[in-house]
Automatic annotation (TrEMBL):
Family: Belongs to the nucleoporin interacting component (NIC) family.
Positions of transmembrane segments: none
Descriptive protein name: Nuclear pore complex protein Nup93
Pfam families on file: Nic96
GO cellular component assignments: nuclear membrane; nuclear pore
Compartments (UniProt record): Nucleus membrane; Nucleus, Nuclear pore complex
Organism: Cyprinus carpio carpio
């Protein structure tokens, strides 16, 4: 019976165990009793270690939870009990409590609102700075991708080869130098205009007189360049050129045509002069910019040219190279009736140039290079408001600019292979900002772009972006359609970023151009850039000067650029202070002769370290030497700051001396120092007086009172034990006898002072 009962129990137990194991949701015991006990012992030991560690700091970890539970705000903010109408005392008490609570709540609300406002303003300033850094980093942001699939267009302007010193041979280096020389000749030519002082650069740039001057200068540059090219070609092929006759443009063009057109071309009209087609001679004389030479050809072939001689004389004598409206209409009518489909490309080109007509014809047979096309189109630009001209006979400068920059663009001119050529196209059409922005995107030519921008900026010909956050090249609302603006500040900051940390002197040269510019917060950009440069490079002495032992200032690089260097140094010092570089800020404020800030920051630096043990090469030792040097200079030169700051500084120095003596074991010397300072009470009678004086001390002193009191009590206790054990007083020192009861009372009062006032 019993056997069967135990068998059933066993079977039920096994069945229960099987069912339990099948249920995955039930927890499984992973530790046995012994492992649980060991884990508990480890936790208890860790708790003991924590309590010992916190106990060394004066915290009773076993009673903290009890103390926290005992704290309650219910009694402070619980609703006030209703009072009877006749209970005047209770009514006044409730009104007083209500007023206090309302004032506290209003103060809390205002504090939170003020904190949120300060936080929001700070975040906006930080975001603005971050945004500027991001925009400066994204150099090519917003620019369209370039398509350079076309073949390189032939040009007599040579181009720089692949960037890199090893990729250029001697011939290519010579060509690149020639390109740079030609570029600066072009810049000089285009900026050699009559500058009219104007506050509004945009108004000056878009005026008709200024635009006409730009076109004249561009034509003169293209004509001089082509004449030089013609001379180089002729003198390089003297045998084929057969140069001779009276020196001048006429003979030069004849010799050039011996090379360019060695055999007569079919379709040439109106005969020849000295074996050359008459219209080719006229065209190339005009291309070289010599109207007199062209007139010489016209006179020799006047019988074949009909009325052209009369028209050309009027064109030659016109100050702006423009026929009168009546003559122009006659020439255009003759061109449309007779010459539009002429087989002589040079004759059609000359008529279109003189009459400024048929602007849709690019004259590809004659203008086979970009410079020729540009010269021809600039000659056809009109500036008058002539409503009688048809659209196909009138081209404005804005239309030509749009055609070159937007319709054709970089891909048409193969700008990646010929950057100087595309820069020339934009610059000669008075699109200075677009030309600079393009050249700046080419790494090896970036410095040229910056220096061209500096030239235009100094001549007040550069259109600048109104906002620092704008892209490098931008359009602004209200400007004429083809006007672009350059972010000059961003251009310089991007350029100097590469070398400002290694060559701060050179960076400062460029920052000086920003002396009249302001950022979005109205801050002077020169001072801002100098501040950032000094902080990042840490070249304080080189850039801002240094302080000599006698207190005089040795000038730095900044003195070459600014008359009032004190304002710049103060600005840099403020930046260093805001970034937490207090030691550097102290030196800079001393350079700026701002004694109050020097002592104020030194007090903040000295306060945390005066109670530390001084060791060689330690933070305290460095600050101590720095403070002693400042104190020596100020005492020698009679310099003093604000009374409270000044007294705090010298008191901190005395306390540092006190702690140095104390840590060195010189108890009597330390006692003499603290006794002279009269900072802590050393007798029963002076306790109240010293306690009342505590509230007059600055925060830097009050933060160290606990350490001062502790050190003082240790000194008194050491002296007490020594005097108690000695039969007589120390020779040369007054007898100090303290009773046990007096010592206990003094220590108790010092402890109360520490708790209640520190």
């Amino acid at each position: 019976m019993d056997t069967e009962g135990f068998g059933e129990l066993l079977q039920q137990a096994e069945q229960l165990a099987a069912e339990t194991e099948a249920v995955s949701e039930l927890p499984h015991v992973e530790r046995n009793l012994q492992e649980i006990q060991q884990a508990g012992e480890r936790l208890r030991s860790l708790f003991s270690l924590v309590s010992i560690l916190l106990g060394s700091r004066g915290l009773d970890i076993f009673h903290i939870s009890q103390r926290l539970e005992s704290l309650s705000a219910a009694t402070t903010f619980e609703p006030l009990e209703p009072v009877k109408d006749t209970d005047i005392q209770g009514f006044l008490k409730n009104e007083r409590d209500n007023a206090l609570l309302s004032a506290i709540e209003e103060s809390r609300r205002r504090t939170f609102l003020l904190a949120e406002e300060y936080h929001r303003d700070s975040m906006l300033v930080q975001w603005e700075q971050v945004k500027q850094r991001v925009l400066h980093t994204l150099l090519g942001a917003g620019e369209d991708a370039l398509d350079f699939s076309q073949e390189v267009e032939p040009s007599f302007v040579s181009e720089v080869g692949v960037p890199g010193r090893s990729a250029l041979n001697n011939v290519e280096v010579a060509y690149s130098r020639q390109n740079v020389s030609d570029m600066w000749l072009m810049v000089k030519q285009m900026t050699d205009v009559l500058l009219v002082p104007a506050k509004d650069t945009l108004k000056c740039r878009v005026s008709v007189d200024m635009q006409m001057a730009f076109v004249r200068q561009a034509l003169q540059f293209l004509e001089n360049s082509y004449k030089n090219y013609t001379m180089v070609t002729v003198f390089g092929n003297l045998h084929q050129a057969q140069l001779g006759g009276v020196p001048g443009t006429y003979q030069l063009v004849c010799s050039f045509l011996n090379i360019k057109l060695p055999t007569p071309l079919p379709g040439m009209q109106d005969g020849e002069v000295e074996g050359h087609p008459v219209w080719a001679l006229i065209y190339f004389c005009l291309r070289c910019g010599d109207l007199s030479a062209a007139m010489q050809v016209v006179n020799r072939a006047q019988h074949q040219l009909g009325d052209f001689k009369i028209w050309f004389q009027e064109y030659m004598n016109s100050p702006d190279r423009r026929l009168s409206p009546a003559t122009e209409n006659k020439l255009r009518l003759h061109y449309r009736r007779v010459l539009r489909n002429s087989a002589d490309p040079y004759k059609r080109a000359v008529y279109c140039l003189i009459g400024k007509c048929d602007i849709g014809d690019n004259h590809g047979e004659v203008a086979d290079k970009t410079e020729d096309y540009l010269w021809l189109k600039l000659n056809q630009v009109c500036f008058d408001e002539d409503g009688s001209s048809s659209p196909q006979d009138r081209m404005t400068l804005a239309q030509l600019q749009k055609q070159l920059l937007e319709d054709y663009g970089e891909s048409h001119f193969s700008a990646s292979h010929q950057p100087f050529l595309y820069f020339q196209v934009l610059f000669l059409t008075a699109q200075f900002e677009a030309a600079i922005a393009f050249l700046f995107r080419v790494e090896r030519l970036r410095s040229h772009a910056v220096h061209v921008a500096l030239v235009l900026y100094e001549l007040k010909l550069l259109l600048k972006s109104s906002g620092q956050s704008a892209q490098l090249l931008s359009q602004e609302a209200g400007d004429p359609p083809m006007v672009r603006r350059l972010n000059f500040i961003r251009l310089l900051m991007l350029f100097t970023r590469k070398f400002e940390s290694t060559d701060p002197r050179e960076a400062l040269q460029y920052f000086y151009f920003l002396r009249n510019e302001k950022d979005s917060q109205g801050e002077n950009m020169f001072m801002r850039c100098v501040g950032e440069l000094v902080i990042e490079s840490r070249e304080f002495d080189m850039l801002l000067g240094r302080l000599e032992k006698d207190g005089s200032r040795k000038p730095g690089v900044i003195d070459k650029f600014a008359g009032d260097t004190r304002a710049i140094i103060t600005k840099v010092a403020s930046e260093a202070e805001n970034k937490g570089l207090f030691e550097e800020a102290v030196k800079l404020y001393e350079l700026a002769k701002n004694a109050d800030k020097v002592l104020e920051l030194m007090n903040k630096l000295l306060s945390p370290v005066i109670a530390q043990v001084g060791e060689p090469q330690s933070n305290k030792e460095r600050l101590k030497n720095m403070a002693m040097a400042i104190a020596e200079r100020y005492r020698t030169n009679g310099i003093a700051g604000e009374k409270s700051v000044d007294s705090t500084f010298y008191l901190l120095l005395d306390l540092m001396t006190f702690f140095d003596e104390y840590h060195a074991g010189h108890i009597d010397r330390a006692y003499d120092v603290i006794e002279r300072l009269k900072l802590v009470p050393l007798s029963q009678d002076s306790v109240e007086e010293r306690v009342a004086a505590f509230r007059n001390f600055s925060d830097e002193i009050r933060h160290n009172l606990s350490e001062v009191l502790l050190a003082t009590m240790n000194i008194l206790f050491t002296q007490y034990k020594r005097l108690k054990g000695a039969a007589a007083g120390t020779p040369g020192r007054p007898q100090r006898t303290l009773e046990d009861r007096d010592m206990v009372k003094l220590f108790s009062k010092l402890n109360d002072c520490l708790i209640n006032h520190v």
